[in-house]
Amino acid sequence: MLRDRLNDEMKQAMKARDEIRLSVIRLIRSSVKNREIELRHELTDGEITEVLSTLVKQRRESIRMFGEAGRTDLVEKEEKELAVLLTFLPQQLSREEVEALVVQAIADSGAQGPKDMGKVMKAIMPHVTGRADGSLVSVVVKEKLA
């Protein structure tokens, strides 16, 4: 279903001559295809979402690094690409929603303190992949376990 949406959006971007959107969609399709070759099977929507999450994480890191280097031209380009990528991900969770999920994961896993962070992260990540930034989840888990 997500694959079909990517194909449709690519056609629309071609017709509209939207170069940035078209290049980002091509990047997504290429990354998905590479992952399929690596795994030797067609990706599910969940696996495509994981690929998208990786691309979003890369863009955010690039924005941070280019910002530190004072390259505003590259920051703008990466931000535009990030905006396109985010349109293909599910609605992002707010911090409050992440906190509620973390509290539930801590209760379900029986975590007692900071040493159980890995157990909590393992329990919560399948529920938030593509819907929340992993670094935000990590920070919230640390806060709740401290």
From TrEMBL:
Q: Which InterPro entries does UniProt cross-reference here?
A: Asn/Gln_tRNA_amidoTrase-B-like, GatB_Yqey_C_2, YqeY/Aim41, YqeY/Aim41_N
SUPFAM superfamilies in the cross-refs:
GatB/YqeY motif (SSF89095)
Tell me the organism's taxonomic lineage.
Answer: Bacteria, Pseudomonadati, Thermodesulfobacteriota, Desulfuromonadia, Geobacterales
Per the UniProt record, the source organism is Geobacter metallireducens (strain ATCC 53774 / DSM 7210 / GS-15)
From the UniProt record, which GO molecular function terms apply?
carbon-nitrogen ligase activity, with glutamine as amido-N-donor
Q: What is this protein called?
A: Uncharacterized protein YqeY
Which Pfam families does this one have? YqeY
